[in-house]
Amino acid sequence: MKLLAKYSSIEDCTVGEGTVIRDYVNLYGCKIGRDCKIAAYVEIQRGVTIGDRCKVEAFAFIPSGVTIEDEVFIGPHSVFTNDLHPRAVGEWEVVPTHVKRGASIGAGAVIVCGVTIGENAMVGAGSVVTKDVPPGTLVVGNPAKIVKRIG
Question: Which of 6, 7, 12, 85 is catalytic?
Answer without folding.
Answer: 85
